[in-house]
Design goal:
The chain has 417 residues and is an alpha/beta fold. Helix content is 35%, strand content 23%. It contains 14 helices and 16 strands. Strand 6 (189-194) and strand 7 form a beta hairpin. It binds S-adenosylmethionine.
Length: 417
């Protein structure tokens, strides 16, 4: 069968034009589009949005994370906390150290990006005399694993024998499992609610629309055969009633994130799971004014809502429903030991003390590193930037009840789940 070529718009739908990708990147995206078209045709013309998102981000060798897109840093599409300053990893070391001492000396990091957090965390734990015996990196992308290996080989060559790469969660986990901005990169289901006389719940997904010179991906409700099940309708109706959704409301159901947390919880013998990400507790996630959901894409440091713009060349994310994460962990045997804003956690764990202990002269003045560090701390803490918007959740199993965990000693308790 000849597949129609996917036509790429100059701009995400409803947005100003963005810088066009290189010819090589465009070819990459076209190859991924063919893979997605094949999946749509094989499924009879429609796939759920979660399947589209999984392919766009993780199709082997072609997806945004599994392929060659640059992703992180100034030359990429977004910057994460650990990429901004080593103080992020150094502060995290203060939180992690007592938990390692009280459980097992093993860290498992999910989705380690460039390896920056791993390097900073290991160096800081070495200073605290709390080096883990193993640092396992769970990485789905071969390209990122290689980037991490090169970064760590340069920054912590003497610790390389402790670092191991895993392609799947181990059957048994102990020590501390960490994930920064991992949950937001997990596929979500999209649904639309309409409060007609008979309330309607549509599963949203993706189909091809034929246009003049080819085809393009568009969002579409599921065909009858794949329509919402009775259980899904009941679940959505309960949310709609509880949070007083207006007549037309589109949102996400974050299935993969909570399922991943449940698996970690089931496999954890003793230790902790610490997750940092942007999101809200459920009552804010499903707030009646959030009528379009939280789905967001990142391309060259511009955020926009069009998931069909150059598939494979942009990140697609959704905010995290932290109540769902807490419930998934709790139901599978973990305790919810802490939940606060990123600013609350960083301040409580001593980020500002670490900053105060540094001198401008510690930095290379010529390249503006000191100013960049000050700016990074401001971005991490400011309520208008990452400070409030990002949350930190700590789920534990079998840790002593009186264990003092910096980051969660006096943190802001106003953020309830
Ligand atoms: C936005 S990046 C964050 C990278 C890094 N943690 C940082 O803060 O810079 C999201 C990462 O999560 C990873 N990821 C998503 N689902 C995952 C899963 N089920 N297991 C492990 N990693 C996953 C992706 O492959 C990607 O590397």
């Amino acid at each position: 069968m000849t597949l129609p070529p996917i036509i790429q718009p100059a701009s995400p739908r409803g947005q100003d034009p963005l810088p066009p990708p290189s010819a090589e990147a465009q070819a990459f995206s076209q190859a991924l589009c063919e893979r997605i078209v094949t999946a749509i045709e094989a499924a009879g013309g429609w796939i759920p949005f979660s399947e589209y998102m999984a392919l766009a981000l993780y199709a082997p060798g072609l997806g945004y994370y599994s392929g060659g897109a640059h992703k992180f840093g100034a030359a990429g599409d977004f910057v994460t906390g650990p990429e901004m300053t080593p103080l992020f990893g150094q502060t995290l070391a203060r939180t992690v150290a007592p938990m390692l001492a009280a459980s097992s000396p093993i860290i498992t990091e999910a989705g380690a990006g460039t390896g920056k957090l791993a390097g900073d965390l290991l160096l800081a734990l070495e200073k605290l005399d709390q080096l883990p015996e193993r640092y396992d990196i769970l990485e789905l992308s071969g390209e990122l694993a290689e980037r991490q290996r090169q970064h760590l080989q340069t920054t912590v060559p003497h610790l390389m024998d402790r670092i191991h790469w895993l392609s799947a969660l181990p059957d048994s986990l102990s020590g501390v499992v960490i994930g920064n901005e991992v949950l937001d990169a997990m596929p979500v289901e999209l649904i639309r609610w309409q409060r007609a006389e008979t309330p309607q719940v549509q599963r949203l997904g993706v189909r091809l629309e034929v246009v003049e010179d080819g085809a393009r991906f568009i969002s579409a409700p599921a065909p009858t055969a794949q329509a919402a099940s009775a259980a899904l309708i009941d679940r959505v109706r309960a949310l709609a009633d509880k949070y007083a959704w207006p007549d037309d409301y589109t949102t996400e159901l974050p299935e993969a994130g909570p399922a991943w947390v449940a698996t970690v919880a089931q496999r954890m013998t003793h230790g902790a799971l610490l997750l940092i990400d942007y999101g809200f507790p459920r009552h804010e996630f499903y707030h009646h004014e959030r009528t379009g959901g939280t789905l967001m894409c990142h391309y060259r440091h511009r955020a926009h809502p069009d998931p069909y713009y150059w598939p494979g060349l942009q990140d697609i994310t959704a905010h995290v429903d932290f109540t769902a994460i807490a419930e998934a962990g709790f139901d599978a045997g973990l305790e919810v030991t802490g939940y606060c804003t990123q600013a609350g956690w960083l301040m409580d764990a001593g980020l500002l003390d670490l900053l105060a202990a540094q001198q401008p002269t510690d930095y290379n003045q010529a390249d503006g590193q000191w100013v960049r560090t000050q700016h990074a701390v401001q971005t991490l803490l400011s309520p208008a930037e990452m400070g409030e918007f990002f949350k930190v959740i700590l789920l534990t199993k079998g840790l002593p009840a009186d264990l003092r965990i910096p980051g969660f000693l006096r943190s802001d308790r106003s953020h309830t789940l």
